[in-house]
Each structure stands twice: as C-alpha cells, then as structure tokens.
Amino acid sequence: MAVEYKDYYEVLGVPRDADQDEIRRAYRKLAREYHPDLNSEPDAEEQFKELGEAYEVLSDPEKRDRYDRLGAQWQAQENGQGAGDFEDFFAGQGFGGGAGADFGDSAVFSDFFERLFGDGAAARPAGPLRGRDVEAIVELSLEEALAGARRRLSLGDGPSVTVNIPADVREGQRIRVAGKGNRGRDGGPAGDLYLVVRLKPHPRFRRQGDDLQVDVSVAPWEAALGTTVPVPTLTGPAQVRVPAGSSSGRRLRLRGRGLPAGSGKHGNLYATVQIVVSKDLSEAERELFEKLAEVSDFNPREDGR
Predict the structure, then answer these.
(1) Among candidates 55, 145, 157, which has minimal Cα distance to 47?
(2) Which residues, in sequence order, are CB contacts of 168 under 8 Å at separation 6+?
(3) Rounded to an integer, what distance in angstroms lies between the CA atom of residue 246 and that of residue 226?
(4) Are 7 and 58 in contact (CB under 8 A)?
(5) What sign for the dihedral angle of Cα 97, 99, 102, 105?
(6) Rounded to the nearest 10 degrees, how much is the dihedral formed by the CA atoms of 46, 47, 52, 54?
(7) How many alpha carbons lie under 13 Å from residue 103 in its C-beta half-sphere?
(8) How far apart are CA 281 and CA 289, in angstroms?
(9) Cβ contacts of residue 250 below 8 Å, gap of 6+?
(10) How far apart are CA 12 and CA 53, in angstroms?
(11) How far from each other are the two terminal CA atoms of the chain, in whole angstroms?
(12) Model confidence over 164-196: pLDDT tens digits?
C-alpha cells in the first residue's frame, strides 16, 4: 500500500507560502492546545504527534522543498536514497515487506517518522512549558466596581488565590492577574488568570449602560413649590434641587455619579421624582387639601397635562 499523504500545511493551519515565523507561531499555539498534559480529549496525543511531524518537515527548508515537490514520496529522497533503497529501509526497520508496509495506522507512521529522523522528532517538545491560562467570573456589587475590591478565589483543585480588583471596572471587563493560572511544566512559568467582571443587581439603583437610575420621593408641596432633597449615590448621599412645579417621572441628572465608562469617565445618575401622598392625613392636612381643591383651577387631565 502506498504511503498515506498528509497535508502538513493543513495540519498546522498555514498557507503553502507561509514563512518560518508563521509556521513556528502556528506550531507553538497548537502544541500548547493539544499537549496531552494539558488536553484531556481522547485524540489529543495523536493530534499532538501529527503536529510534531508537520513541524519537523515544514521547519526544515530541505525537507520542506522535497515535500512540496514529491508529495507522499518525499521521504524516498532523504539522504540521496532511491526508491529501492527506500523500500529496503522499510524492511530493515521492521515495517514488513518494504514498500508494501501499511501506513494507514497513524501510530505506525509516527513510529516510522521518529526512526527516520531521529529520536524525539515527533515527540513532545523538550524543555519548560508555560502553564495554561485560566478564566473565572467574579461578581461585584456596583460599589465594588467603582471603588475596587479584594477577593479570595478557589480555582478547581488548585490552591485558592487572593486577587485585588482595581477601581472603575466595567461589566464584561477581563482583568489579567499574571502568574495565577495553571502551573507550568518542567520549570516553565505559570499561566495567567483572567477575571471576567459581572455586576450584581442592586437593591436600589437600576443600571442603564453606564448610567444609574434611582427614585427620589417628594411631598406634593415640595414638588409644587420646589425644594432640595437628598439623593443616594454609590459614594454616599448627595443633594439635588427639585424645581418648582415638578411632576412624578421628572428626571434630575447628577453628572458623573454613575458607573465607570472607561478612560477615567463615568456615567450619570438620574433621580426620578416620585410624588408621595400620605395615607393617613391629619384633620388639619385634610382641611388644607380641601381648601386647595376649592381655590385651584388646575386640572391634570386637561390639555394633555
């Protein structure tokens, strides 16, 4: 049976005119992804070996040139061997009757490849290997997103880590914590930890992008005459002026008192006026409201008001 042809360019995911830097980057990326120590998928080791074979050929200009010109039979020209010598090599290496050897089994082909080019040609890369990066979700209150926080996190079976969350982080932001990912192999550096920010619902504030909304209660006479009332914010109470003649639903803006908006900026806080009437009017209050009803010609249902 003929030697199985493998498209090593396809294995590494590079174009046929890729330069050595592209080939090297592609191999390193995929080797980390499919390394058996880091990938538990059943076929990870086989894919890892195939990557090693592809890189061994394409990273060597002479081997790559023969591969490009001769395809599946490129090995027959290794070290000046003719086709007959190549067949004898097969037989001499214990692969059966020379060119009749069956390479349909990729494990056999990998073994042959290692013998042909020397020990370790398709083995795992030697030397230190960087640990895998880890991603985790961290939930913050709105106050913590604004002021920063400190968290102790348990990541799988590894030891827990304490991380500092910087101030002014946003929903969905990824925070890199260097060296807190999985441990490296053979003395290699640890990977990084990436925290993805999720903001928890707030009992008082409503989020609208980087802006916040909050209700502020005012009495009927305060809305009619105008007043200054306290408004809660993420950093403590503030004062806002309620203009005379304000109705329920009127929004009063507190500039820059919302959530972080990036580049050192912040959204706004909008205080929505809610006119509140007491359910238990005193006799004097009732009389005053009755007097107001007698003297006022205001009709809120007239003229679309």
Answers:
(1) 55
(2) 145, 146, 148, 260, 264, 266
(3) 7
(4) no
(5) positive
(6) 120
(7) 17
(8) 10
(9) 272, 273
(10) 10
(11) 90
(12) 999 999 999 999 999 888 888 888 898 888 999
Token reading at 84: 């007959």
Q: Distance between CA atoms of 214 and 228, rounded to whole angstroms? A: 16
Q: How far is CA 1 from the centre of its chain?
A: 47
CA distance 46 to 301: 78
Q: Quick one: which of 143, 4, 5, 28 has its CA closest to 13?
A: 28
Give the number of other Cβ atoms within 10 Å of residue 208's Cβ: 13
* pLDDT tens track for 231-253: 999 999 999 999 999 999 999 99
pTM, 2 dp: 0.55
Neighbours of 23 (CB within 10 A): 20
Contact 177, 193 (CB under 8 A): yes
CB burial of 250-264 (b: ≥16 within 10 Å; e: otherwise) equals bebebeebbbbbeee
Contact 63, 113 (CB under 8 A): no
| 94 HSE (CA, 13 A, CB side) | 4
Which residues, including other chains, have CB under 8 Å from residue 106's CB and lie 6 or more apart?
A: 4, 46, 49, 50
Residue type, 290: E
CA dist., res. 145 & res. 235, Å (int)? 12
Q: Which of 275, 271, 276, 269 is nearest to 215 (CA)?
A: 271
pLDDT per position as a tens digit, 247-270: 999 999 999 999 999 888 999 999
Give 98's DSSP letter: G
